[in-house]
Structures are given as C-alpha cells and as structure tokens.
Amino acid sequence: MFFSRWAGRLRRRGLDEVPWLFALPAVVALFAFHFVPIVFGGYYAFTDWDGLSHASWVGLQNFRRIAGDQFARSVLWHTLELATCFVLLVNAIGLALALALNRAVKTRNVLRVIFFAPVALSPLAISFVWQWIFVPQGALNRVLDAAGLSSLQRDWLGDPSTALWMVLVVMVWQFTGLAMVLYLAGLQQIPEEIEEAALVDGASDWLRLRKIVLPLLAPAITVSVTLTFIIGMRVFDQILGLTGGGPAVGQTETLGTQIYEQLFQFGRYGYGAAFSVVLTVIVLGLALLQLIFLRMNERRL
Amino acid sequence: MNRRSYRGGRASVALAFFVLLTLAVSSAQARPSGQSATVKLTMYSSGASKPALDVLIPQFKEANPDIDVDLTYLGTAASGNQLETTQLAAGGGPDILSVWPGCGTATSVCRLAPAGHLVNMPAKPWAKRSTSISISTSKYGAGLYVYSPVVTFEGLWINESMFKELGLKVPETFSQVLAVCRKARARGKVPMLLAASQSLVMQQLLGAFALTTVDDYPKWLQKLKAGKATFAGTPGWHRALQKLVDLRNAGCFQLGATGTTSAGAEQQFVQGQALSYANMTSKKGNIEGALPKFGFSQHPFPITDKPNGTTVMLIVGVGWSVNAHSSKTNQAAAQRLIDYLAQPTQSGTYARLSGGLSQEQFQKGVLPRYLSSYSRLFKARRYGVNPVQKWQNAETGDALTEFGTALLTGQKSIAEVLKALDAAWKLGPN
C-alpha cells in the first residue's frame, strides 16, 4: 500500500519508480558496507571493545589517551611528514613528466604507459619487491658496490635515519604516474593558440610555463594535490611491506599502521577505532582546507 | 507504452528473477545420487607447520575418506590475528583455528576462550601425553582448549663446518660467545645472524635472556602480576638487556640486523654466510628444506658463565583449537583431525619435519641428534616457558620487541626500555 502510494506520488511528479528500484540494491549495499560500518566504527571509538566480547562505553577515554601519548603524537608527526613530502615530490615529478610527454615525442605513448604502470600494481606486492632491493645484501647496495660507491651502502630499512625516506621513495615511484596522467589531461585542455600567441610574442619557455600553463593547469593541480594528499595520509601497505613500522620504536609508524596494530595485534578495537576517527577528521579537515584554498586560487585566475 | 503492457513487463522481470533464484539455490543443494556425504573442514595453521602438514593432512584424508580438509597457511602472526579475530567477531571462522597457547597475542587462549569462541576438549588421550608446561598454557580456567603439537626452544643454529674451518669451539658460556664473535669478526666472518626486523625474534631472544638472569623467574612473575614488582626495579631485567648490549659491542651481529627478516637471515645462513643464527627450533624445516651444503645443529644460547647455569627458553608452539561457532558435525570432525595429529606417530612426524620436540619426546627426554647438546640442561630440568606467553597483554611483548631493537641501534638506553615495559604492563589485560 505504502509503495503504491509512493509510486503514485512519483508518477504525479513525472518520475518513474522503476529506475529507483534498479538502483535500490546498490544503494542498500552502499549503506550496508560503507556508511553503516563508518557509524559503527565511530561508536566503537567511544568503547573499550576487544573485538571478541561485549563493548562497554568509556566516553572520551580513548581520545584522551591518544592526546596524552607521546608515541601517538610521533605517529601523527610521521604521517604528516610523509604525506607532505609525498605530495610535493609526486606533483613536482609528475608535472615534469607530463610537460615532457606532452610534446611530440615518438615514444611518448609507450613512455606514458611505462610511467603509469606502477599505479595499477598492488602497493603491498611492490613493497615486498622493494624490500629485497633495500636489504643490506640487496640490489641497491650491490649496484653501489659495483659503481665504486660502497661508502654509500646502508642498511636502508634497518637504519632509523633512512627507513622513512625509503618508504617515501617507493610511494613516489608508484604514484608519480598518477599525477602525470592528471596533469597530462589538464595540459591537453589548454588551447594551443594561447601558447602559440605567447611564443610569437617572444615569451621564453619558463615565462610561458609560469604565466600561462600553470595558471590554466590550476584545476588539475587541485585534483592531483588533493588526491595525493589523501593517498599520503592513508599510507599503510608500503610500511607493512617494507618495515612493519620499524626499525625500533615506531620509526615508520603512521596512523594507518597504528590502527592496524591496535586492532589486530593488541586486540584493542576501541582504541584503534579512536585512531581511525582521528585520522578521518585530520584528513577531511586538511583536505577541505586545501581544496578551498586551491579553488579560491582557481577563481582568482 | 500503455499501462497494461508496462505492468506485464514488470511481472516478467519479477518472474525471471524468481526462476533464476530458485535455480541457483537448488543447484547449490544438488548432489549427484550415489555419492556419500563428506564433512568439509576448514583449517588455519601457521606457516611453520607447512613441512609437516603437507605430509600429515593427505594421510589423514586417506584414513578418513568421509572428511575433507581445506587447509590455509597463515602468513605473518599479525595477518593471522587479523583474519581470525575478524571472522570470529562475525560469528564465523574456520572449524580449526590456529591458536597461541597462553597469552600475549590477539589469538591466544586467554583471549579467545573466555569470549566463548573455543570448544573445551576435556579428557583427551593426548592431554595425558602432553607436558605440564603445554597443558598449563593450553588451559583457561578448568577447560582445555588447544592442542600444541611441539615444544620448541630458543637457541643458536650452528654452521658446524665453518666452526671447524675457523678452528673454533661451539661456545658454552656467555664469555665464550663474545670471544667467538670477536675472533670470527677479525677473520671477516659474520658471527651471528639476527633477524631483528621480525618482531618475535627480538622478543624471544630477550625473553630467553631474562629467564636466566631474573632470579626465580616464575616467582617474580607472580609478584609482577600482584603489582609487587616492576621491570625497572628488577636487576635481572637490567642484566638481560645488558647481554644484548654486550653482544652488540662485541660485533656479534651482521650489518643491517635491524633490517633483516627471518627469510633473509635464513637465506644467508643456508648459503653458509654466517657462523651461527639465533632463532627457534621451528626453523629446522626451512633450513633443512634449503639443503645447505654444511652440517648444522642447534645449541643452547649460553647466557651465563656458570656451567649449566643457562635456563633454556621453551616456546609452546602454536596449536589448534576447535571453533565453537562451527556446526556440531564439523566440531566432531575437527576433534577427530586433532586427535589424529596428536597420536605419537603423527606428532613425531610433525616434530621431525617442522622442528622441535613432540609432547611425547619431551616427556621422555628423547632428543634427536641435532638437539643433542640440550641433553645436559634437559636432565637438570633447566628450562622455562617463553615469558611473553604468560604476560597479560600483547603490548608488553611488543614493547620488548620495539624498545629492544632500539637498544640494539643505540637509540634507547636500558632504563628507557624497562620504563617502556612497565608502561605497557600497566595498560592491563587485552
């Protein structure tokens, strides 16, 4: 009865209920497997749930513990440090590659595929391969030795001063192709006539890049920076595969790995869920601020 | 399109959907006539058990054609914890779980049993054949929940050929260990491989040291649990951590120890690149499987200079439990499989292929040739359970790993490590 009245109301507004019925299973699945778990996760952040028995409400205890824990603060710092360096490097290198491959180079299509291919691979699988490259007897140290640079050999993943940067190398290697593709799409939106006009007026390459290309690339920059920032903040697979959060006291621990550790190693689901909430709030907040700032920039142009 | 044909279209779609659903359900339930019903068991087991279970499970299936076993080997301890706890929280999981005896991990007896996820297995014949050490860690309250096939030891895998080549004797005291390290280093050899990037390795090594250096460790643990002792206030723990510092300063460990995984260390050892390898007996299967071109054996890791002064650390191996969420039929079949694996012949095969001593071998003090150097300490009953298996939470074991590794790299001092252990202990039980 209810559905027939609802269908009638839709028909009077000129809407047909059949498309909605087809979409209904997907909408239900979206709520069931995406939104509902988020709400439950948020609830568990305020409990002492161990994943196996009953959850008791503890209020803000988990968040107070995070705020007062020096280790948790260092984890947050590592996450922000990694994400910031990742965004800067990936976008700089990605843009350089896009500018280079936007020209009429014979092999540009092949090169585009080669640079994009790592993006399609599993981050965890890539990290396990890179681990074998970085181990003391691995390919990197052997190459350095063969090149007469054995003084540069290191325990790349076991040395606290280099471990985090090796994680960054792998992340940048994998995702530069993504930034490149986004910038290529943006470059191809720039009308050729504008660049040609600037060329005719005697503008140098650098001037054209600064005054024409980069401003018109603003929408692509917004998308790429926001996307890579989220990827950087969520880093997990690379750390799990390369260092496991080590060496020693959480040298490469991030919010993502800390959530995993609290949940599945220590069985502190409530505390881990609180970390998830903190991560979500930080990522949402910073990503929104970034988006607003970049959009304002676009509008100004 | 008029209203009649529109309604007819919708009815056809609904009818087609109903027919498809019926066909799907009936084909899932259909069974060719004449075939007997087979109970399909799902089982998780740690990767260390692979050399043995690859032989024993097919034998079981041959002897029990009405039971089919779908076995999955878990990767790292963390991934195994993740898989099992997630499934158990949803009321599912395999019929046979891989469970850690004692406490200290997310899938240990003391977490899963009180939450009602494990089946009590009272009055089993294999319980009488099991050591009291195994039983004590396999129980929770009055119930018995885990069968552990082997007991393994922390020790030193020795490259016998390299020792002979260098004219060195296998060390029997801690001072001799340091001397061997210095001599081997001077000859350009790696004295001791340590897979310090693997969490359990550091935890077990330091736990092994503490069993010897902390006076009357079992009594000390009671005091710790009662709040009458701390890690920082116990000289024995200072001494245990000092041992690691002494080994580091003597150049015992390979370059890049903190970045070396167990797989990497094993590879180096079987390729004859080091004099010794600090790890558990359960590495036997992997080492043997790599067919090293030298003789090897495992020896107790000497922690003191007193003759027979070392206490060997035993690890009650990861075992199997029956899932309380499984059907009664599957629970009965799971118990049959566990009972089969627990028989003396099968458990002896398990120990031979995967390393360690079966429960019967331990009870009788029967040591295979590669473990013969443990006989003196065994006869003197100089052994104790892995401390972490008796700790109240996983964070304390993790702190021992992380801060112990930081001690190795010189980032943290002994005092800071002990402070971290106390802070982790105060978080309370998992």
CATH class of chain A: Mainly Alpha
Helix run count of chain A: 14
Biggest β-sheet strands, sense, barrel of chain B: 7 strands, mixed
Based on secondary structure, the structural category of chain A is mainly alpha
SS strand fraction of chain B: 5-15%
Helix fraction bin of chain A: over 70%
If you average the pLDDT of chain B, what whole number results? 88
Q: What percentage of amino acids of chain A are in beta strands? A: under 5%
Biggest sheet of chain A, open or closed, and with what strands and sense? none
CATH topology of the largest domain in chain B: D-Maltodextrin-Binding Protein, domain 2
Radius of gyration of chain B, in angstroms, nearest whole number: 25 Å
Helix content of chain B: 40-55%
Summing up helix and strand content along with how strands pair, one would put the structural category of chain B as alpha/beta
Stretches of chain B where pLDDT falls below 50 for ≥5 residues?
A: 28-35
* Rg on CA atoms of chain A, Å: 24 Å
End-to-end span of chain A in angstroms?
Answer: 55 Å
Residue-averaged pLDDT of chain A: 88
User: CATH topology of chain A, what is it called?
Assistant: MetI-like fold
CATH superfamily of the largest domain in chain B: Periplasmic binding protein-like II
Report the principal-axis shape of chain B.
globular
> What is the CATH class designation of the largest domain in chain B?
Alpha Beta
